[in-house]
Design a protein that fits this description.
Elements lengths: L5 H25 L6 H26 L1 H6 L1 H22 L5 H8 L2 H11 L7 H18 L15 H21 L6 H26 L7 H29 L1 H5 L5 H13 L5 H18 L2
Helix pairs in contact: 1-10, 1-12, 2-4, 2-9, 2-10, 4-8, 4-9, 5-8, 6-8, 7-13
């Protein structure tokens, strides 16, 4: 993508990053009975931290005073983006279904668009608002499998509260990542945030290991954590922070709406699950919506 401008690359990443995050759904489905939620999140971001810092170690050493001066912001971002948006999603998956999780998370881009307009004063017009609404309708259509009447019969579970917390956390992670400026590059900043996230997760992972049936370390668990660190961790977060810099919070936030249809395609390719008409209809709503939000 070297021939594209930075803004064009950011718009292209809107369609690439959800593929990387889609692997997290597959990993989450493989994790129960293998590794506890906080252990998985902790190992994921420990490995991701090593990757980020291995690439950006010269910058981190040169900017060590900046890092130390900004430790409060980094700790907050690490808690929001790595702990809550990591472990809490895995916890939610143990006691609620994928439909509820996807519906709750679909609220996040709407909240990001509203808060970024009010707090960050980012430009966001009525046409872009229609795009968000259209994409939201598309993702709800996919989640409900085209049967909108199911909204009246949804049963809410305790895990939905964990998912609600994760959704709110992602919203403010996105907003604060945009609002709190730093001289660090995205690689260096993510390395520090990952380290901060591991520090927050560590006591919870230790408590899980001491009180639960699953060990903190196992070969299968480490492999899952490595996969989560490389694709939905290192690559996806690096792409997302670049999009935030170039596009703003509201335009980058709609990336979440490609998650359900992409996950369906990945489940078809990897797990052999069928593609249905409602997937196609949902994608036909989501793609124009994203175009409206990101058009010039």
């Amino acid at each position: 993508m070297a021939f594209l401008s930075r803004t064009q690359r950011a718009v292209a990443l809107v369609f690439v990053v959800p593929i990387l995050w889609g692997f997290n759904f597959l990993i989450a489905r493989s994790a129960p009975g293998v590794i506890a939620p906080h252990a998985l999140a902790g190992e994921r971001w420990l490995f991701a931290c090593v990757l980020f810092c291995a690439v950006a170690w010269r910058e981190l050493w040169a900017q060590r005073r900046v890092v130390l001066a900004d430790w409060r912001h980094m700790l907050v971002l690490g808690a929001l983006g790595m702990w809550i948006c990591g472990a809490w999603v895995y916890i939610a998956g143990q006691s609620t279904n994928a439909t509820n999780m996807a519906l709750i998370y679909a609220i996040s881009p709407v909240m990001i668009a509203v808060i970024s307009r009010v707090w960050l004063k980012e430009p966001f017009n009525a046409v872009q608002g229609c795009g968000v609404a259209l994409a939201l309708a598309g993702v709800v259509h996919v989640v409900l499998k085209g049967r909108w009447a199911q909204l009246a019969h949804l049963q809410w579970e305790p895990g939905d509260l964990w998912m609600l917390g994760a959704m709110i956390s992602w919203t403010f992670f996105t907003i604060l990542l945009r609002r709190w400026s730093t001289p660090l590059t995205d690689l260096a900043r993510l390395g520090v945030m990952s380290f901060a996230g591991v520090l927050v997760i560590l006591p919870f992972a230790a408590w899980e290991a001491a009180t639960g049936p699953l060990p903190m370390w196992s070969v299968h668990g480490v492999l899952l954590a490595l996969a989560a660190a490389v694709l939905p961790g290192f690559a996806a977060y690096l792409g997302y922070t670049f999009m935030l810099r170039q596009l703003g919070a509201a335009r980058a936030g709609v990336v979440l709406y490609l998650g359900p249809p992409y996950a369906a395609v990945m489940a078809w390719l990897i797990l052999g699950e069928p593609i249905h008409v409602y997937h196609v209809v949902g994608l036909a709503l989501i793609l124009p919506g994203i175009w409206l939000v990101n058009r010039r």
